[in-house]
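In response to the reviewer comment on reproducibility (Comment 2.3), we provide here a single inverse folding case reported in full, input and output, so that an independent group could reproduce the run without further information from us. The structure tokens appear first.
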């Protein structure tokens, strides 16, 4: 199967893929957090914290412009906020699934009542309503995999990053060896059953393992990042390679 972008069952083009993903995540928003924690045995919290810690130097700068794209219900944003100083510029937390974003906005408002620490922004990751060269850091946690076009997503993030700006993409991968085989059984057979029991829906949790299988493996993903103009591209596996963090930087000078 092509790994140019997300391919929910029954879609024929990028536009319909985006619409299917948007509808899917809006439908599971009420149980999304609970299901994430159950399915990962709360390891997802560790992944978010570890990814946020990687960018603590940028986050510590009060004037740094930060974008959490495909933010879902805002857990990655909340992890990033732990490294933001008081009176720092609010983090932009963007997603195109309104029901997910609404839950994220509630979390942000509850963290520091009366003080905006993050701004919920309804936006498409492939068409960001942001000026070029305006962001110091763009982060995406478990959302990039759902884009209808991975190359277009990398190019759009490149457009909004400042020269020298940082990129972080946290997402699932498929571990190899005996662990990979065991995990594949869980991911493709057990996980959909748990998802159906908690949400009453089947398709979103059939889509999840399919989307991971369709996602580029680390060497291919790193090659795509370099081709899109990023430098210092690297991948750090988490929890035996079940997930991992892709990092990169925009060159300060073109082709440098």
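Designed residues, in position order:
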């Amino acid at each position: 199967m092509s790994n140019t972008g997300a391919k929910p069952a029954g879609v024929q083009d990028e536009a319909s893929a985006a619409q299917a993903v948007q509808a899917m995540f809006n439908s599971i928003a009420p149980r999304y957090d609970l299901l994430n924690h159950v399915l990962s045995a709360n390891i997802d919290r560790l992944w978010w914290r570890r990814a946020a810690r990687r960018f603590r130097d940028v986050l510590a700068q009060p004037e740094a412009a930060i974008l959490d794209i495909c933010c879902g219900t805002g857990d990655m944003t909340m992890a990033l906020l732990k490294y933001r100083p008081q009176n720092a510029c609010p983090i932009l937390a963007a997603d195109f699934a309104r029901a997910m974003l609404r839950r994220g906005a509630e979390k942000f408002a509850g963290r520091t009542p009366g003080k905006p620490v993050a701004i919920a922004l309804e936006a498409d990751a492939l068409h960001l309503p942001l000026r070029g060269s305006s962001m110091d850091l763009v982060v995406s946690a478990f959302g990039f995999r759902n884009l209808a076009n991975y190359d277009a997503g990398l190019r759009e993030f490149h457009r909004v990053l400042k020269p020298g700006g940082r990129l972080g993409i946290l997402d699932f991968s498929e571990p190899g060896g005996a662990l990979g085989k065991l995990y594949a059984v869980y991911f493709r057979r057990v996980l959909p059953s748990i998802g159906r029991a908690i949400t009453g829906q089947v398709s979103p949790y059939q889509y999840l393992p399919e989307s991971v299988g369709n996602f580029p493996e680390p060497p291919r993903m790193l090659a795509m990042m370099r081709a899109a103009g990023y430098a210092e591209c690297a991948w750090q596996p988490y929890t035996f390679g079940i997930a991992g963090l892709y990092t990169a930087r925009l060159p300060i000078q073109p082709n440098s």
